[in-house]
Each structure stands twice: as C-alpha cells, then as structure tokens.
Amino acid sequence: MDWWQFTTTKEFPQDIDLVIFADYNVFQEKMNEFKILLANQKADKKRLDIHKVEVYPKSHKNYETIYEPNWYYWLDLFSHTRKDRRTKKRQSRGFIKIIYHE
C-alpha cells in the first residue's frame, strides 16, 4: 500500500490531502476499516482529506478505465500548484511517498 502526500512551503497549510494507492483486493478486504478511518476523520473535524485509488494490474479490465485515469488525475493535481493569477504559470511541487507493509 502506498500513501502519497504533496509537499508545500506553507508552514500552516489549510489542510493536508492524502491519497492512498492500494491493490483493489486490499480495499475490498479493508473496506470497513477505511470507512471507519473516513468517519473518524470527519467526526474529529481534522484538516485531512483522504482519498483512495484502487490499483489494478495491467491485465485487469479496470486498469485503463479506473486506475490510469485516477493516477493521472492525482499526478496532475499534486505535482503542480494552481495557476498563479498574475503570471498564469504553475509551479512544480513534490510528493512524499510512504510504503506501508502490514
């Protein structure tokens, strides 16, 4: 299971976005735990936005229709800032990747 977080130069960001990439079988097995994690996060009013992406092998029918579009969406969103209002440019930013093994 991989956890991705983009980096920022802000000392006190408004929130933290966390995307969990995990094998689709893991999400099926851990769905109740994931729902509890989301419920606790919302109940505690944490400034943590949690998203999940189910990872499928290339040979799976959902690889191109579900996994790849999600991967590219989060890559684009997290690898650059929004366009600057004045310069109309986007700045690159980095990722933190945490590999978690049970």
How would you portray this structure in words?
The structure is a single chain. This protein is an alpha+beta fold and 102 residues long. It has a domain at 2-6 and 16-81. It has 3 helices and 4 strands. The protein has a 4-stranded mixed β-sheet. The protein is globular, with a radius of gyration of 15 Å.
Instruction: Write down the overall mean pLDDT.
Output: 80
* Rg computed from alpha carbons, rounded to a whole number of angstroms: 15 Å
The biggest beta sheet reads: 4 strands, mixed
- Helical proportion? 25-40%
Strand order of the largest sheet: 3-2-1-4
Broad structural category: alpha+beta
Order of helices and strands: EEHHEHE
| CA-based shape | globular
What percentage of amino acids are in beta strands?
A: 25-35%
Unreliable segments of 5+ consecutive residues: none
Give the distance, in angstroms, between the N- and C-terminal Cα atoms: 9 Å
Number of strands: 4
Distinct helical segment count: 3
Oligomer: single chain
